[in-house]
Amino acid sequence: MPPKRLFDTPRDEPGRLLIEPESITPPRRSSGLCGLAVCLQSALQAASLSVSYAELMGLLNAAFLLRVDEDFSVGEIVESRWERLGSVLAELGFGEARVREQMPQPEIIAEELGAGRPLPALGWGEGGGDWSLICGQDADGKKWWGYEFLAAPVLVAGEASCRMLVQVGGKTGDANMSAARDAAIAAAGKLRLSEKDPVSAYDKWAELMRRGGLFPEGPAGDEMIMRHEWLTEVLLDARYAAADFLRTVADSLGQLVAEELVQAADLYDQVIGVLESRQPGLFEPIVTDVLRDAQVRDEWAELLQEAAELETEALDIIRRIGAAPRP
Description:
This protein is of the alpha+beta class. It has eleven helices and eight strands.
C-alpha cells in the first residue's frame, strides 16, 4: 500500500471543492468507538442537526449488537451497523438521504460538498476497515480529501473509491425523534434469536476462549490478543451507549413503560460491571501473557456468559415494549 499522503496540494488548486476544515468536526475516537456513529454525527452537525452519540448508537441499534469471528477481526465488528441507516436518516428529517453501495458520479459528490455536507464513507483510504468523513474532491472526481476515523484525525488525500457512501442530502422535514426511538426499540427487540443475536455472539466468544491454543506464541498471537482487547473495548462503548439511550427513551414515555426501560438500562449497566471486572484489566501490559493461560480464559468465558444472561433479560424487556402498541 502506498504511503499516506497528507494535504499535499495548494489550497487554491483549480476546480477543487473542499469544505473548510473549521466547518467540520473530525471523527475522533474520543467521541465514541463506532466509526459510523461518529462520522454520521459529524455529517448531521454540518447539516444543522445535533444528535448525541448514544442516541445515534441506539437509533442504529449499534448499541445492542455484537459480532465475533475466530480471528477477532476489526472488520467483523463494524459489519451490519448500517442496516437501519436509511430509515434512521428519514426519521431524522432527511428524506432524500441515500446509502450508496455503488460509486456515485462526481457531480453527486460535488453537490453535497457544495452544500457544506461531508459524506461518511466505508472502506476509503488506509482506514479502509472502518468509516471516514469525505469533505473534498478534485476537479475530475478521481481524488477525495477527508478524515479517517482515528484518535487524532488529520486531513488526508486518497483515491475516490469506497465500499459504501452516505449522502445525507438536505432536510425535507423536522426530525421525528419519537418515531425514530419507537422504531429503534422495536428493531432491538427483534435481535434475540435472529441472525444478529448478540447472545449467540457471547456464546461463540466464550467457546473460543475455552479453545486450546487460541492465542499462539509470537507476534501474530500478540496482535490477535490486541484485536480481542479492541473488541472488548468496542463492546463496552456500545453497552454504555445502550444504557444511556434506554434512559433517554424512558424519559419520554409513560411511567410503567419508562420503569421497564430503566430496568433494561440497569441490566446493561450490570453487563458493563461484569465485563470491566475481568482480570487482567483491558489492555494491561501483562495481557499478552495472561490471556494465554487457559484458566484465565476460562474465567473470562464465565464472565462473558454472565453478561449474555443479563442481556437476554434486557432484550426480553425491550422486545415486550417494542411489540406493545403505542397510545
